[in-house]
């Protein structure tokens, strides 16, 4: 990098690891810029948690909105084709592109909350002016350390962990079936809103659903059975709290998740 001023930035997803990293770094990099790329479809609990985190950090968290909304992109560019794990256009358009615009052509060090006990790669920009660093990895901090950082700060983990294991859009296709049931119970209007995106083409028989293999109407019809299965799984995990249990389930499934949305 040249002798131009270097910006230090830390992206928050509303998830536990990036939040813990912000707390961990608070007094280490005075000029740190915190930001959150807002898809406009985040959970209310995420916004509430970010407000609390902002107060704790004593610094603003820049809310970066994509210039083109999900609905706009869906209609004008993706022909109603919902994103899915294989065609994750939403991540590119609503998370990565706004971040790169935020960085601009500045020389940027981006702090990423991947832990020492994780064998995965976060989003690392291919732009030459953005360099990613991994303080948890460098300091050998693991899952238990992250939970301790959050608890010691008094913030704990975001309230959505009561029913969902990751941050991200309310309609995120990475949600487990039981999390869709959680959305229906906690945020019935958002569940209804998610349904509005699903489509059935009677001519071709093609179905555009969020959850694999079934529509949200079909999923809703078997909500009780889904809940019972999920409860049995949670009971079988011997962790001290339900928050830990949910966070541990998320860890098991981490490879499927959208890292930049939920770290
Ligand atoms: S949280 Fe899910 S739906 Fe939202 S941008 Fe990320 S992958 Fe897409």
From TrEMBL:
Record InterPro entries: PAPS_reduct_dom, Rossmann-like_a/b/a_fold, Sulfate_adenylyltrnsfr_sub2
This protein's UniProt keywords: Transferase
Domain (Phosphoadenosine phosphosulphate reductase) ranges: 8-121
Keyword Transferase: yes
GO function term, MF aspect, one: transferase activity
Claim: Transferase is one of the keywords in the record: yes
Xref: Pfam families: PAPS_reduct
Cross-referenced SUPFAM superfamilies: Adenine nucleotide alpha hydrolases-like
Protein name listed in UniProt: 3'-phosphoadenosine 5'-phosphosulfate sulfotransferase (PAPS reductase)/FAD synthetase
């Amino acid at each position: 990098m040249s002798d131009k001023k270097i910006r230090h930035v830390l992206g928050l997803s509303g998830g536990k690891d990036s939040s813990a990293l912000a707390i961990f770094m608070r007094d280490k990099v005075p000029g740190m810029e915190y930001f959150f790329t807002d898809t406009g479809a985040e959970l209310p609990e995420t916004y509430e948690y970010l407000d609390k985190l902002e107060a704790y950090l004593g610094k603003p968290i820049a809310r970066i909105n994509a210039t083109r909304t999900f609905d706009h992109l869906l209609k004008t560019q993706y022909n109603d084709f919902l994103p899915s794990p294989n065609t994750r256009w939403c991540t590119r358009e609503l998370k990565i592109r706004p971040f790169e615009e935020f960085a601009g052509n500045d020389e940027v060090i981006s702090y990423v909350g991947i832990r020492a006990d994780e064998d995965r790669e976060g989003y690392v920009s291919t732009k030459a002016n953005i360099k990613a660093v991994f303080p948890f990895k460098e300091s050998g901090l693991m899952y238990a350390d992250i939970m301790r950082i959050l608890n010691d700060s008094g913030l704990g983990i975001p309230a959505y962990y009561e029913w969902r294991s990751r941050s991200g859009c309310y309609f995120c296709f990475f949600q487990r079936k039981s999390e869709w049931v959680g959305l229906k119970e906690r945020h019935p209007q958002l569940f209804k809103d998610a349904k509005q995106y699903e489509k059935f083409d009677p001519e071709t028989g093609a179905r555009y659903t969020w959850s694999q293999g079934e529509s949200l109407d079909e999923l809703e019809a078997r909500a009780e059975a889904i809940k019972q299965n999920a409860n049995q799984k949670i009971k079988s995990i011997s962790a001290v709290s339900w928050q830990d249990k949910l966070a541990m389930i998320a860890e098991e499934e981490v490879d499927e998740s959208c890292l930049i949305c939920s770290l």
